[in-house]
Amino acid sequence: MKKINNKLKHNRESINKIIDLLEKNYPEVKIQLNHQNPFQLLIATILSAQCTDRQVNKVTTELFKKLNTPQNMANAPIAMIEKLIHSTGFFRNKARHIKKTSKILVEKFHSEIPENMEELTSLPGVGRKTANVVLWAAFGWQTIVVDTHVARLSRRIGMTDKKDPASIEISLINIIPKDQWSSLCLRLIYHGRAVCTARNPACGNCALAAECLYPKQ
Known about the structure:
Number of strands: 0
Structural class: mainly alpha
CATH architecture of the largest domain: Orthogonal Bundle
Largest sheet: none
Shape: elongated
Radius of gyration: 18 Å
Number of domains: 2
Distance between the termini: 8 Å
CATH superfamily of the largest domain: Hypothetical protein, domain 2
């Protein structure tokens, strides 16, 4: 991809147009991971790595029937957790992280989910993306969630020329109004799944085409 046009990247008018167009096309958006409390959301988000939300929801329906608190997740045999989450992929690593994280939650945080980035990312298997999802969807923070869709679309549109998620997050923080952080990221995810796919994006049917650099390249 060509170098991003800095004028577009820092143009507030263009950013506001993108926000308005996405809101018009996706007026009602919500996180797709089923959960009833912050702990369930944390576990579901860990499981969502390299896995679809739909598959995670199938798995957590059964998982949380059997293991629905940090205490019983921490006490469960690792083989039991692996069996329950097997179909999400990378199940051994995920099971190990979930069990260790649950144990830390019990011993250090009294079975509560910490409400800050530093403590959340100290948990096994929890990076900035997972922490930002939890802070936003469980606690109501405005956060920038950089998943594969947000990374791809923000580069294609011209909101950043960075490649690593942390740098993309900083870029978006600098140009997007704070009260739009969470909703814009979620709408970018919706748009990435429906239109701006990784391969063969439907640029001819894209509401953002006039504000996007990708069709021009």
